[in-house]
Amino acid sequence: MTKKILITNFSALTVMQIVQYVVPLIVLPYLVRVIGPAKFGIISFAQAIAYYFALLPDIGTNLYAPREIALIKQDQKELSVFVTGVLALKVLVLMLTLLLYFAMISFVPRFQDELLVFIFSAGYIIGESFIPVWFFQGIEKMVNITTGIFFIRILGLISIFIFIRQPADYVYVPLVNSGALIIGVIFMYSLVFFREGVRIYTPSFKLLDKIIRESLPLFVSNLVRNLHVGINVVVLGFFTSNTIVGYYSAAERLIKVGMGLLVQVSNVFYPYTSRMLKVSREAGVASMRTGIVAGMLLSVPATIFVVTYAEFIVSVMFGSDFTGSIPSLRILGMLFLITGLGNILGMQILLPLGKRQMYMRPVLGGFILHLILVFMLVPCLQTVGAAMAFVMAQIAATLWMSCLVKRLSLGIVSVSAGLKMMGLSTGLVVFSLISWFMDINTIISIGIFCVIYISLVLALRIVDLRSWSIIV
């Protein structure tokens, strides 16, 4: 039954990420042709700023609440009280966040030329703040989130085609997208209150204090971790042209598609591992071992694939106007392996063990390094500098986190599993080099790459097809 829950939730989360990121990529070629690369850069810049502010009302719940809900989900009243407390805090912080956001765009000169774009982008703050991923992740019913995200993206896609018809319409893009987001969030909460039976209670100050105290370290770490995503676009927006921002944003969106799928491994195993640790330490460690191998099965080929076929990917997804995205995409492709491993170490090991402070330190250190590097490299290297800063900072944070996990002496990674992953990586890298030297047709090369990957997974006995389980 537990395996079925894991498979169901991972499948739902995978579909959610495909819908969440691929649907916008379907409409992107149309949007760019209508409004142009420079206006796309303006929209991306405004969305990155709004995204920063949307992190504040999270108050750490995306990492804190799933674990707590997983432990109390059988008690309907206790669950309702906890959810009400989380929402009450979110509403309060959102009000303060919106005041701060509108004050900033009203007085900072950089935002005055495109004020309407930034005003309409405030809808992202409201919508992103309240997406109840944390609730459905905690009760292990991610299909509901998948349904909601599908509704949001399809509504946004249709609206773009209907309302964005000429260059001057670019100003309405954030209004259309954020409007679809808010409508979808309302739909999701109808599931929370009517299908799942959550009721509204007056939360006690004791509960609110508990949520604040226990989620604050996670809020800081989550804030810092997500600042990595937006800081490059923001810095590029201040130091370079809108077109350059458009090039980098396109590459970053492509990486987000794949990274979103990888993160779902951690999102699925996080509440499950927390629950297994409550049963026994051995059961929890066994879940961690499976999670690591599952994550590496996706991140290793993803990194090699993007680095090898970056030019082809950009050509297919964005066309010849976005050749400026190729160098940054190739560098950012390294994040699949680096950040994928970091998510595994943090969300599948440290957080289920309750090591919140231990998790926060490398995340914070990585962000500080990223901030220093991005201001050093962007002025001279532009998109390449932004991508390099991101990757270098993530390498440092992941190495630090791996050292902390090693000190726990959990024996999570077996020699056998390590050798299998090395064999998989070596086989794919060797083929990629051969394909490059022999100048094999890209389509044929990609087909062979996929066949080799599947063959290596089976030959190395990483996956048991009879039971559809990962061998650790």
List keywords for this structure.
single chain, 2 domains, 18 helices, mainly alpha
Describe the structure.
- The chain has 18 helices and two strands.
- The protein is an all-alpha fold and 472 residues long.
- It has two domains: 2-413, no CATH class; 414-472, no CATH class.
- The chain has a two-stranded antiparallel sheet.
- Helix 10 packs antiparallel against helix 11 and helix 11 packs parallel to helix 14.
- The chain is globular.
- The protein starts with a helix and ends with a strand.
Short description:
This protein is an all-alpha fold and 472 residues long.
Write the layout of secondary structure elements.
Elements: H1 2-35, H2 37-54, H3 61-72, H4 76-107, H5 115-120, H6 122-130, H7 133-138, H8 143-163, H9 173-195, H10 205-239, H11 242-279, H12 281-318, H13 326-332, H14 335-350, H15 356-381, H16 383-407, H17 415-438, H18 442-459, E1 463-464, E2 469-470
Antiparallel strand pairs: 1-2
